[in-house]
Amino acid sequence: MNPTLSLESLEQGAAQQNMKKVSCSAVLTLAYQSLGVVYGDLSTSPLYVYKATFAGKLSLHENDEEIYGVLSFIFWTITLIALFKYIFIVMSADDNGEGGTFALYSLLCRHARLSILPNQQATDEKLSAYVTEGSADTWQSSALKLFLEKHPKFRDMLLIFVLLGTCMAIGDGIFTPAISVLSAVSGVRLKVTKLHENYVIIISCIILVGLFSLQHHGTHRVAFMFAPIVTAWLLCISGIGIYNIIQWNPQIFQALSPVYMLKFIRSTGTEGWVSLGGVVLAITGVETMFADLGHFSPLSIKIAFTFLVYPSLILAYMGEAAFLSRHHDDIQRSFYKAIPEAVFWPVFIVATFAAIVGSQAVISATFSIISQCCALNCFPHIKIVHTSSKIYGQIYIPEVNWMLMCLCLAVTVGLRDTSMIGHAYGLAVTTVMLVTTCLMAMVIIIVWKKNIITTISFLLFFGTLELLYISASLSKVPEGGWISLVLSLTLMAIMYVWNYGALKKHQFDVDNKVSMDRILALGPSLGMVRVPGIGLIYTNVATGVPSVFGHFVTNLPAFHEVLVFVCVKSVQVPYVSEKERFLIGRVGPKEYGMFRCIIRYGYKNLQQENYNFENRLVSEILQFVEREEDALKTTTEPSRYSGNSDIESVDAPEYIQLNPSLEENLVQDVMKSGIDHLEVSLLKEESLQILKARESGVAYILGHSYAKAKKSSSLLKKFAINVVYAFLSKNFRGPDIVLNVPHTSLLEVGMIYHV
Fold first, then answer.
1. Which uninterrupted H or E stretch holds 251?
2. Rounded distance between C-alpha atoms, residue 730 and residue 661, angstroms
3. How far is CA 78 from CA 107, 289, 342, 615, 671, in A?
4. 132 backbone dihedrals φ, ψ, rounded to 5°
5. Closest by alpha carbon to 318, among 139, 514, 74?
6. For residue 312, what are the contacts with CB-CB under 8 A and spacing of at least 6?
7. 525-529, 650-654, 735-739: which has the minimum mean pLDDT?
8. Directed axis angle between helix 152-186 and helix 418-446, to 10°?
9. 91, 234, 446, 711: least surrounded by Cβ within 10 Å?
10. d(CA 403, CA 57)
């Protein structure tokens, strides 16, 4: 089987599987599998939460109010944010089965027309995944849409806000492996007391290097181990928690009362407020539940969390609190100290494997996030590799992998302390959650059409809680939290500059398109020598004749007898199915031999196909020509494909959505056997001319562009375009590599863009 086809079928299934009715056994199977992918990060939080919480000036007193108060905060934080906010509310705001920050933003872009992507057309709204129907707009949703439409600066601010959450989520890919592995390995010092801290750091770094070095093999090769490891880990910590509750303090259940939170804040004051930056680490990984929604079903994730993950974590934190209530001096090693002697080493081994699994899941999620950023023109083009032909979405990005490894090692060696890493980690986690809350509030109004009271209640309740944790995390900026800010601001700057430069280049292309009147005035030969073959002109615009074409013919007045303007673009939906991928249209009269091909991808599609693109494109054009001829024979209306000068305008082209089932034999022959084996009796005259041109060869024409800021631009804009954007364009992958263009057939036309 063609691996691309299997990936495509899996891709379509991933986008629709949440809408299918599945059996109870299938749901339970997905729930079990989700444990290894979704909950690896969240389940390892007990390794470091209490240590990070009591790492500052907060001290324990004999009355145990501090322990009870911290446990109460942990319990209600997990219950309110993880259970109520994410499981019961946010999980319902999926985008065709996909979750995460981009899913919420995508929903808003489609319903409120906020899209940052160029080349968006009315035709895109006919995609099966582009669903915006629902109840009629309320006055609140209409007012908010009108506000967004009239204030483009607010749309830019919303984009920056989304990028902030995205960059903080990428930071999780750095902090999670560092804090999880270091916390797990440090437990060995309880049994090997003479082991110096430097050796713990070295062992942790070796594990991290091994973890990142294995990424190119793909998650699927070890994924079968993930669910059993996390399941064993959850059962271990819940069992140990029950043991500690019975053994040390059966009255610890009293701490579940929210009264103890008030007592804690009142008795500890500023120190207690600052310590909340450690409490928030108890919900690291909750965003992963939503982000990984596309790989599972909402019901399976809810079942796994509600019936296993949630009670296991609560029991683990209660058991550790019960142990601490009788062993105040063991606060910095409370997790491993609370493990019964007989099962220490088995639990230590499981903890180490669980930390690796949790790190693996976050690293894979980081790859997916950056892939989506590339699709949305918010990150330079990089190499993306499929690691599995059976499981769609498992990818590997070499440059990002080694960057994450270096940063992760730097954090581990530089900070050397899980508490300081936790300060940076906590700020990243709370910021992502606040971004989700704000986007969710907009979704409630614009997409769900709820009233303003419901929206404000959601925003105030969860936003206030998360702002409390963010304020506590910000107080730790001098003690490690600055790392999150530096990394996020750096990534945000790169993303915003790249997006800004890409949009300005697109605007330049739109403003400098070749006039259609000028093209028509040249006649069918276009005023050039038309040589045999097919010329594929890659362009950033989906309408009109691109400036690169005029630039080319000015310097070399000869061109191929068949011209195809190819535009590869992203659409604000998660997936575009294979049957909806290509749009074919004609540019100019029939005798001009010019076509337009628009190739559409969703933000979770990978724009690197393995099929023979030339044969695929020719087959699509042949289908277009055949259907066009058949349509002309069955209609008496004037044809827009005649040779009249008022034919279809290239600025508002009519495209034919191709159906792969039509002309099936023709397509299969083109795709499998090549042009030579086609049945010529099936083809019309123009189709035969296209096939002859294909036999003569295919040339790829790309614009090799250089962006320059105008002389009148500000110093900031000149620095962004002439320095930052130019550096990124030069050092990351060019369009010829991204589009997989064969170098033997490539022609590049130098272009300078003044933005």
1. none
2. 42
3. 27, 13, 30, 54, 53
4. -125, 5
5. 74
6. 43, 234, 235, 237, 238, 241
7. 650-654
8. 140
9. 711
10. 35
Distance CA 382, CA 737 (A): 9
Question: Which residue's structure tokens are 């299997």?
Answer: 6
Q: Which of 564, 581, 686 is nearest to 628 (CA)?
A: 686
State how far the Cα of 648 lies from the Cα of 634, in Å rounded to an integer: 19
Place of tokens 């999780």: 172
pLDDT at 389: 63
What is the Cα–Cα distance from 370 to 498, expressed in whole angstroms?
A: 13
Q: What percent of the chain is predicted at pLDDT more than 90?
A: 33
Partner residues linked to 752 by β-bridges: 706
**Who's near 195: CB < 8 A, 6+ residues apart?**
188, 189
How far, rounded to the nearest angstrom, does the alpha carbon of residue 716 sit from its chain's CA centroid? 29
Q: Could you tell me the pTM of the whole model?
A: 0.84
Q: Distance between CA 205 and CA 376 in Å, rounded?
A: 34
Q: What is the 3-state secondary structure (H, E, C) of 594-626?
A: EEEEEEEECCCCCCCCCCCHHHHHHHHHHHHHH
DSSP 8-state class, residue 386: E
Q: Which residues of 626-642 are buried (b: 16+ CB within 10 A; e: fewer)?
A: bbbbeeeeeeeeeeebe
Write the pLDDT tens digit of every residue in 47-62.
999 988 987 766 666 6
Q: For the purposes of burial, counting CB atoms within 10 Å of the CB of 146, is it exposed (0-12), middle (13-18) or buried (19 or more)? A: exposed
User: Edge to edge, what strands does the sheet with 656-657 contain?
Assistant: 656-657, 582-586, 594-601, 558-570, 529-538, 698-708, 746-754
For residue 56, give the nearest of 423, 447, 393 by alpha carbon: 423
Judge whether 272 and 48 are in contact, CB under 8 Å: no
Question: Quick one: DSSP state of residue 545?
Answer: B
CB 439 within 8 A of CB 465: no
Distance CA 238, CA 320 (A): 10
- Token readout for 101 is 């920050």
Q: Which of 381, 687, 748 is nearest to 537 (CA)?
A: 748
Q: CA 391 to CA 387: how far, in whole Å? A: 9
Assigned token pair, 323:
């142990």
Residue 647 tokens, joined: 């034919």
Residue 708, phi then psi, degrees to nearest 5: -130, 135
- How far apart are the C-alpha atoms of 362 and 355, rounded to whole Å? 11
Average pLDDT estimate for 527-543: 87
Alpha-helical regions (H) of 447-589? 452-474, 482-511, 516-521, 547-555
Q: What is the biggest distance separating any 2 CA atoms in the chain, rounded to whole angstroms?
A: 94
Report which of 749, 723, 691, 741 is spatially closest to residue 533, judged by C-alpha positions: 691
229-270 residue pLDDT tens: 999 999 999 999 999 999 999 999 999 999 999 999 998 888
Predicted local confidence at residue 65, as pLDDT: 85
d(CA 1, CA 180): 40
Question: In the beta sheet, which residues pair with residue 430?
Answer: none
Residue 750: predicted pLDDT: 77
Most confident of 74-83, 136-145, 179-188, 627-636: 74-83
Residue 392 tokens read as 């769609």
- Each as own residue / partner, the long-range contacts of residues 629-632 (CB below 8 Å, 24 or more positions apart, any chain) are 629/684, 629/686
Do residues 313 and 46 lie in contact, with contact meaning Cβ atoms separated by under 8 Å? Answer: yes
Give the pLDDT score at 404.
93
CB contact at 8 A, 573 and 107: no
Angle formed by the axes of helices 197-213 and 398-415, nearest 10°: 170
Which amino acid is residue 124, in one-letter code? D
Residue 453 amino acid letter: I
At 476, list the tokens: 């730790």
For position 673, what pLDDT does the model report? Answer: 42
Distance CA 256, CA 193 (A): 36
Phi, psi of 271 (to 5 degrees): -60, -40
Give the residue-averaged pLDDT of 626-640: 60
Decide: helix, strand or coil at residue 61: coil
Compute the mean pLDDT over every residue in the chain, rounded to the nearest whole number: 83
